[in-house]
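Practice problem 4.
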């Protein structure tokens, strides 16, 4: 990517929804960047708390830096993000959710990468996980991790990344985003992954090991069957929407990537069956024939075959045998 100057304007999109207690941290982290030619585009999704007032107090202090838009009704993450993209004036665009924050050289590092590597169109950095209280959990990528760079589409589709988590906090040009299209507003979840897949399908993506961002981890997980089914539905949707891009690669390679891509889909399908009481030795054996390495997840395999009660029964039997030996 050829930049117009050494210090192009960078727009940072900050999305906010009911984050009055923490959105100031995100804003301050952006204003404290070592790279100074920035614009903050803060888009509030019709918060029910006093987020608007908090953001306005920052805008009053930095009117030349902060542009605020408040949605008249709640539109959801994809539409809120698209609003932010349309409001950006910068040649380059990156983002920071209201519960995340940037480290001081995040923007400078990404701009330097694009300026010094003109054959790249997108750059993303390493990041750290934090809990909601601001305590460090861990770094996403360690020195031992080989993070893909260049044509990352196959790795991105199969989530060949630490924690099976796709990269975050990318920076690219407004021109590229206009050309490729914005967020797919028909997808309620996995929308960030879909957006990055479309970027990776057409553009060369670089990686910087600098830990540029803090990513807040929210408690919870796949606790309900309904939630699992929703996650599975849209995971499959994103895969099916983008998998045809693999046609440009050798057939054997594409087949390998697709197998890796469908592993979490097949495993989550078994997990949903388990929660519904539809565990099946036959289905599990078919799964193991397709993915033999998964036999190492013994607890999952046993549960999927015989149901969760079997492990409890075996544990109780083990305790009885121990007592009888005594």
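Answer key:
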């Amino acid at each position: 990517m050829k930049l117009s100057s050494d210090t192009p304007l960078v727009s940072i999109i900050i999305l906010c929804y009911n984050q009055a207690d923490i959105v100031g941290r995100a804003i301050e982290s952006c204003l404290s960047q070592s790279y100074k030619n920035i614009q903050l585009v803060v888009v509030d999704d019709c918060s029910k708390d006093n987020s608007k007032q908090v953001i306005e107090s920052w805008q009053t202090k930095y009117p030349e830096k902060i542009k605020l838009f408040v949605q008249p009704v709640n539109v959801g993450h994809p539409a809120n993000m698209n609003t932010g993209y349309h409001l950006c004036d910068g040649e380059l665009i990156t983002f920071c959710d209201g519960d995340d924050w940037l480290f001081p050289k995040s923007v400078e590092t990404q701009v330097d990468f694009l300026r010094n590597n003109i054959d790249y169109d997108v750059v993303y950095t390493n990041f750290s996980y934090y809990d909601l209280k601001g305590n460090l959990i861990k770094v996403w990528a360690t020195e031992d991790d080989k993070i893909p760079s260049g044509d990352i589409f196959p790795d991105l589709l199969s989530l060949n990344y630490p924690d099976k988590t796709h990269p975050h906090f990318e920076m690219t040009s407004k021109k590229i985003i206009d050309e490729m299209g914005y967020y797919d507003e028909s997808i309620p979840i996995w929308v960030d992954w879909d957006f990055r897949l479309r970027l990776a399908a057409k553009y060369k993506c670089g990686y910087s090991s600098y830990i540029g961002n803090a990513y807040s981890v929210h408690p919870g997980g796949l606790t309900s069957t309904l939630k699992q089914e929703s996650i599975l539905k849209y995971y499959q949707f994103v895969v099916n929407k983008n998998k045809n891009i693999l046609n440009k690669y050798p057939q054997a390679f594409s087949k390998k990537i697709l197998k890796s891509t469908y592993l979490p889909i097949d495993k989550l399908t078994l997990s949903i069956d388990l929660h519904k009481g539809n565990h099946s030795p036959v289905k599990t054996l078919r799964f193991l024939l397709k993915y033999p390495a998964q036999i190492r997840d013994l607890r999952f395999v046993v549960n999927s075959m015989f149901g969760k009660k079997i492990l409890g029964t075996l544990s109780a039997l083990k305790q009885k045998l121990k007592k009888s030996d005594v």
